Task: inverse folding
């Protein structure tokens, strides 16, 4: 009978170890899936360089669009390119072409504030944005996925 309890205890302990190892592996996979960068540092850069147009919560204003929806649609490489080089997020390629009537209607919509600004400045010359672009993406990505609320993240 004692032998039975020893074997049963060993099996139970082995099962716990396997369960713990599986949980650790899934936590590591979840951590690896997160974008590189610091959410807190990204929040600080965003508040300093972006919030005046896009709003403190990145949900958009009358000056600039909601970044949460737009960030959700792009990966980190596209985000870096869009922010550092220049972007026309609200301007589809067909509208930016040479069609005069389309361009005239677009200009009229902008003048009546039915459309936002066409472009945002390129940030490649701004050292703080350039140095923390991965952090900025980490913050906006966390906000767009709902894992970070609109307030200050933990450092």
Result:
């Amino acid at each position: 009978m004692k032998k039975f309890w020893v074997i049963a205890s060993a099996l139970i302990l082995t099962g716990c170890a396997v369960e713990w190892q599986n949980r650790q592996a899934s936590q590591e996979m979840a951590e690896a899936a997160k974008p590189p960068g610091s959410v807190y540092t990204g929040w600080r850069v965003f508040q300093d360089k972006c919030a005046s147009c896009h709003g403190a919560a990145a949900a958009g204003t009358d000056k600039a669009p909601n970044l949460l929806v737009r960030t959700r649609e792009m990966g980190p490489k596209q985000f870096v390119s869009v922010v550092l080089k220049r972007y026309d997020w609200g301007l589809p390629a067909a509208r930016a072409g040479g069609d005069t009537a389309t361009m005239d209607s677009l200009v009229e919509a902008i003048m009546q504030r039915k459309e936002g600004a066409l472009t945002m400045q390129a940030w490649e010359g701004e050292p703080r944005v350039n140095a923390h672009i991965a952090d900025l993406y980490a913050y906006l990505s966390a906000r767009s996925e709902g894992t970070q609320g609109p307030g200050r993240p933990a450092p």
Observations:
- The first helix runs from residue 2 to 33.
- The chain is about 65% helix and 0% strand.
- Residues 92-97 have pLDDT under 50 and may be disordered.
- The chain has two domains: 1-33, 38-145.
